[in-house]
Amino acid sequence: MVEFRYRDDEVTEQPSVTLDAFLDQSNATAVRLEPDDDARALIPFLDRLTLIEVAFPKFRDGRGYSSARILREAGYTGELRAQGDVLVDQIAFMRRCGFDSFAPEGSLNPADVEAAFARYENVYQGAADAAVPVWKLRHG
Amino acid sequence: MKLLTGNELGSGAVTWWTGSGWSIHVEDAVDVGESGEAILHAEEGARRVNAPYIIDAIDTPEGPRPAHIKDRVRALGPTVRPDLTLKPADPAAGDWII
Amino acid sequence: MYKYDNYDQAIVDARVAEFRDQVNRRMAGEITEDQFKPLRLMNGLYLQLHAYMLRVAIPYGTLDSRQTRMLAHIARKYDRDYGHFTTRQNIQYNWIKLEECADLLEDLASVEMHAIQTSGNCIRNISSDQYAGAAADEVADPRPLAELLRQWSTFHPEFSYLPRKFKIAVIASPEDRAAMRLHDIGLELVKKDGVLGARVFVGGGMGRTPMIAPEINPFVEADDLLSYIEACLRVYNRYGRRDNVYKARIKILVHEIGADEYRRQVTEEFAHVKTLGIDPPLAELERITAFFAPPAFEATEAEPDRSDPDFAVWLDQNVKPHKQAGYAIVNISLKPIGGIPGDASSSQIDVMADLAEKYSFDELRVTHAQNIVLPYVAKRDLYAVWHALREAELANANLDLISDIIACPGLDYCSLANARSIPIAQKIATRFADAERQRDIGELKLKISGCINACGHHHAGHIGILGVDKKGVENYQLTLGGSGAEDVSIGKITGPGFDEDGIIDAVEKAVEKYRELRDGDERFVDTYRRVGMEPFKEAIYG
Q1: Which candidate, C453, C517, C455, C509, places its Cα nearest to that of C478?
Q2: Is the pLDDT of residue A132 over 80?
Q3: Do residue C50 and residue B81 have CB atoms under 8 angstroms apart?
Q4: For residue C478, what are the β-bridge partners?
Q5: ipTM topping 0.90
Q6: C71 three-state secondary structure
Q7: Beta bridge partners of C364
Q8: Range A35-43 average pLDDT
């Protein structure tokens, strides 16, 4: 269940299919990536996808962060959802990598999530979000 | 015999289960027999101990002595800094550690 | 020295607040130890044998006197009056209370310091050459790039949950004083046609499977470096092994797919990453570089008076040439005979801070060999510096000699250790206490680890010692022929291990064999490389 969503468009109702299933057939508009799936395989199809769900079976497995950035860097503008072991202490990193919805397995306190997003006013490096890195602020 | 040991959550100090509470002195430790797991869960849940585990030990006239060298070092303090151990005034206090 | 601006300070302050909140949640029972552990580790807080241990980052090993005094203050206020300098140029405190940790971090933040990413599967403190800015052989000061990397790697959103920890070293001299090629990424700054860039080595490391990093790129221009390193990390984050913690370091990935294939993947990723605009403009590197401008050296030709023989010995052993005429680099050895390698008391730390302020343009460095450097001392002040060091029992004249031992904390402190390291270091130093004998033996890098994780760099020791657990008893393996310098190599094991006294005897036999076999002014490691293992084996086991 999607607990936190930071988009204004309609929620995709279609269930997501696995990457293999998607590449085999399909005209699905929602797909789910496991940590060891190559996100780049989706690049030719980004226009027709409205939801990409990235699985985090364990929060320590950080491959999904790279998947997310790769998809955003390739121009994907649909919903990018982090699903699974999504914790309040990682959620700000996820958002910076381009996730804009979150389906944590456990429940998260909305106030804690807001606090996590607001914690750091500035960032040191460019990523997939709109945050302006400190070096850019320093040099105009 | 089996001992239950862990650390105090706030201070980090090494502690030993005494049968009714926790002590920093291994000499106060008691054999937990088969009940170690149950005590461990209850005490950890109540945050009276952090990262607890059960160890093998032998009973001696001076008190329980952990079987493994790591827990013997834990029981007194660093062998290279007798001044920082639990018994800084007793130069022979660490004779049983190694 | 780099100085924080408001952005840097705000980020560190926010981290203190975040950690305070995490500690409070733990103390209140809102999160379990399993959930808290990765959070505290991300901030360098371990639960060790006797207590919590906090590792404080010393970026590229550089400190000013105010920061150094704060380290002493922390040792007094929150610990037991001493600190331990580590092989990654950091400092560790062994007796920290969780409930006081946030206050400690707040004190640290007041002098522009932190414990961010000193543990965890993220990019760790960037290490560098302790002679940066003072060495005659450097093509540039490596620290501005190290600071640029520090900022880039701090809270990097994509690389905070890597397969395993990630260590980067930056040097700028052909002489490698930072064990650069034994890092996950090693950078050596070089100039090509007047343009600053770096040789990039990837996939070195010690631990269970020691590897020397192969060169992945002979020259990456300075303004491409962040993109290039980002590409190196992205390939690792995606394809590094996560099925086995012992095979999760990048060295295993590079080794398994081969340097050529890794290079190909990085080249491809870099071509993409470079289009993203993540490299700061050169103006940012220039802004940082301005903080590392050479200090206001005076024109001085004065040479020290060598008439005090103890002073002359120290001068010859611990003082190194400087790129500035009239100045010298002073090495403060934290290896007194029979002492604990890398430990310094609060008052000793204060003395070193005072000396830095008075005689070294307010700067100190921590070395990966667990010593301290005063990088900018006028030669006319050397005698005064030596005097003050001697008063504080810090004038040990043994730099790079057999008693200048690297040792991890070992089983006296560390919950991962299998055997004690410190007592072995103490006994070896005591066995070779005779200063003349040490100097006759010459450069001999002896390094001791208390477990296979190799924090004591034993693989890179001319003589290395590895403590293992043999059925509950400490046992020590001996290796010969390693080096962490530009002649980098991995030591080879001599044969069966020894008990505590046996290892001391074995070291002495190996050293005496070297004295017998050496040719001219050959170092121990040179003789070993010339004659091979056999004669040493015979001497040790024969």
Answers
A1: C509
A2: yes
A3: no
A4: C465
A5: yes
A6: helix
A7: C63
A8: 98
